[in-house]
Amino acid sequence: MVPTASSESAISWAGVTPPKRLSDYRPFPFSIPRIELNVVVHQPDSVLVTADLHLEPSDSKAATPLILRGVDLELISILLDGHPLESSSYLLNDEQLEIPSPPTQPFTLTTVSRLDPQANTSLEGLYESGGMLTTQCEAEGFRRITFHPDRPDVLSRYRVRIEADRARFPVLLSNGNEISASALADDASRHEVVWEDPFPKPSYLFALVAGDLREIKDHYSTASGRDVTLRLHVEAGDEPFTAHAMASLKRSMAWDESVYGLEYDLDEFNTVAVRHFNMGAMENKSLNIFNSKLVLADAESATDGELERIESVVGHEYFHNWSGNRITCRDWFQLSLKEGLTVFRDQCFTADLHSEPLKRIEDAAMLRNTQFREDSGPTAHPVKPDSYQAIDNFYTTTIYEKGAELIRMLRTLLGPERFMRGMSLYFKRHDGEAATTEDFVNAIVDGAGADGQPLGFDVEQFRLWYHQAGTPHVTVKSHWDGEAGRLSLTLQQSTPPTPGQERKQPLVIPVLWSVLQANEGAGEERLFVLDQETQTVVLEGLSPAAQPPVVSLFRRFSAPVTWASGQALDDLFALFAGDNDAFARWDAGQQLWKRLILPRAAGTPESELESRMLDALGQLLAVDGEKDPAVLATLLAFPGPAELESLQKEADPPALERATCELRELLGSQLAPLLTSRLDGVASSLDQVWPAGQGERQLTGLIWSWLAAAGDSGARSDAAQAVEGPSMTLARAGLRALQPIDCDERDQALRSFHDRWQERPVIFDTWFSLEASTPRADALERVAALLDHPRYDPMAPNSVRAVLGGLVGNPRVFHALDGSGYQFMAEQIIAVDQRNAITASRLAKVFSRWRTYGSERQAAVKRALSTLASADLSTNTREVVTLMEA
């Protein structure tokens, strides 16, 4: 909430923290074109920050109170144009500094503050990690470094001097280009480095790192011939694991030039790997800071999926240089302006470098199992929220992935060429600005419409996607006139109520569709724009036939919706076997898997359908079946647990786990010869270097899981032995295949993984997750013991998420009917919240679907939520718990 300065002050002094509202946005009454920071590191628990803010009032006729944010800062002195301010001239509390009557002409405010990074367990602002000092300022961390408005629409050029002990902190980094570096004239044991960033940026993009790091150096020549120095900074011993991240950065830079025509704009680009980090990575201008897990990797220490994920995240943070840094967001309600757009860009980057169809399936599956779940629960919110209590709670799949889907729909509606004209206009029009989602959509449609052709949809109606929460549902009914060869489809859309939004308006929904006719294959792909509650589309000129054609709907996952078309099993099997759109083919298979798993979970297996599915799978696995192992593995993969839960009348996670285990056992026993033959066929490709061989390794892991479930001793042995091999992909695949099975091979594999990787925290967190999620009779006691393991680091979010996230992934234990799993989680969230509110609030969302459970589990969750509600919680976690209880 940003009302006038005086009313904001009154609210703050009263100690009340009401929600911030988009409707209350007002520009900050001062600009700060320049900032000089002098950061003097005495010890990890004592840093002195001198900040010179060069302020220019917006109104030169009337004095406006100046309000600056500051948290956990000891104010040493404050000067205005070099003159000390009397204590009666300003107001100071635990959250802000106010000067009621500042000058009406440009002036310089100088503050000197002391802070303690070592005591900062929030991992926001400036904090200590393994002897290194580092920063995380998004969203509101800069206020923990110095007094500042700390809002994204205040853009400044920064000059930063850092001083520290040379032996303890040999590397001193900040944003921009290094201007100078030297020893102190009066103390050779200390040194200073000065950095200057010539581009205006908001405070959330400020970064500083001081520590004993090793540098890996490379160069990149831009399209215009400029030489950029690339540096990756890691802790000693981690140097051998940086080549993949560096290569990914160079591929990202080349892709952004070739696709968007966007070059890097500084002389150097630095990246730092940090173990203690709340986020995956942070796009600070020219100084990206990464969670070590998303930097340090090779084929022996990371899976194929992790290597691709690292490449994608490295690209994501680099792409932010333009979609986030050069153009930033006006306020945090516009968060998806930078995050949704950059997710879209990194998805396209991965699709271009690897497989576009498989990437689209991966993104759709992720959306269905995370964002759709979020959209249907108590924490549902629009892509552009209208209020928030703690902005950190809105770093969600709705903001990121659903936000990316809105941009993808614009590309589908406009076509790639017109869409890219709009993107070019956006970067040109708003470079150097703090923009809004309205600015973005306006630029896209203005650029696309430059050819004078109609857009084909209502722009104002499309904007509703940003403001309405919830996942739209589309019902499709078809009518076939066999004699005339005429197919009619009637589509009806609706969006269910979400918290605070009961009534929803029709949206603009692009529907890509086609038909498959007997002996003719798939027809032309067509775009239908569904923008009313009910519409009918008619396709003429099809071949007359008694049986209707098979309809392929929402091809390429053309909109983030769910749909029901009442398709017959014959239609689904036809699509599964032969649709030429990879997503539609996969989706048909997913529908078939659901029809198999859900009855099994209810105790009523569909034996006839299972038999028919075995025949279909036999054709896929046959020598003349699906040739691409990556496609085959994708088609054979079951739907995610969250998606299956959403289809149950009463969600029963343990029953679903039991059903999938039974189904794997059935498939493994009935298809054993074909599965074994496929294993033999891909064996020679398993040692290929990523990205080659990843489909073969993916298929091998899936087949191991089926055969191992069926009791195949050879598969179990191979899976266990893979843990000792050179491929982390196969090692983890072997562990996953054995995990649900109580057998000697499982215990052997887990011991081997523990002993091999216990000295590498980035990898060892995987063991924590595996241990916590392995179904055992004493699993909860084992999880509790993991929290006392000598390698467990309670200050590292990765470790916390590994153990407690692993517990959530253990349905029999977490969802035990006696509520012991829920209660244990509630107690751990309270403990985590005392040191890291961001991590705790995200963990609290594991209870978001509690109202979908049966009455016994609901009662157990309510007891756990009551435990949480009665605790002294941070604002972040309190907001989530309150929403759960509502």
Structure commentary:
The protein is of the alpha+beta class and about 900 residues long. Among the domains are: about 30-210, tricorn interacting facor f3 domain (Immunoglobulin-like), CATH 2.60.40; about 330-465, Neutral Protease Domain 2 (Neutral Protease, domain 2, Orthogonal Bundle); about 475-565, Immunoglobulin-like (Sandwich), CATH 2.60.40.1840. The strands form nine sheets. The protein has an eight-stranded mixed sheet with strand order 6-5-9-3-2-12-15-14, with no helix packed on it. A five-stranded mixed sheet has the order 17-18-19-21-20, covered by helices on one side. Strands 30-26-25-32 form a four-stranded mixed sheet, with no helix packed on it. Strand 7 (about 90) and strand 8 form a beta hairpin. Helix 16 (about 655-670) crosses helix 18 and helix 19 packs across helix 20 (about 730-740). The protein is globular. The two termini are about 25 Å apart. The model is unreliable at about 1-15 (pLDDT under 50).
What topology emerges from the helices and strands here?
Blueprint: H1 5-13, E1 20-21, E2 30-43, E3 46-57, E4 66-69, E5 74-80, E6 83-84, E7 91-92, E8 96-99, E9 107-115, E10 125-129, E11 132-136, E12 156-165, E13 171-174, E14 177-184, E15 187-201, E16 208-211, E17 214-221, E18 227-234, H2 243-260, E19 268-274, E20 281-282, E21 287-291, H3 304-319, E22 328-329, H4 335-353, H5 356-375, E23 387-388, H6 398-414, H7 416-430, E24 434-435, H8 437-448, H9 459-462, H10 464-467, E25 473-481, E26 486-494, E27 509-517, E28 521-522, E29 526-530, E30 534-539, E31 550-552, E32 562-564, H11 569-578, H12 582-601, H13 607-621, H14 629-636, H15 641-645, H16 653-670, H17 672-682, H18 694-709, H19 713-721, H20 728-738, H21 744-757, H22 761-773, H23 779-786, H24 797-808, H25 811-814, H26 820-833, H27 837-844, H28 855-869, H29 875-885
Helix pairs in contact: 2-3, 3-4, 4-5, 4-6, 6-7, 7-8, 11-12, 12-14, 12-16, 14-18, 16-18, 17-18, 18-19, 18-20, 19-20, 19-21, 20-21, 21-22, 22-23, 22-24, 24-26, 26-27, 26-28, 27-29, 28-29
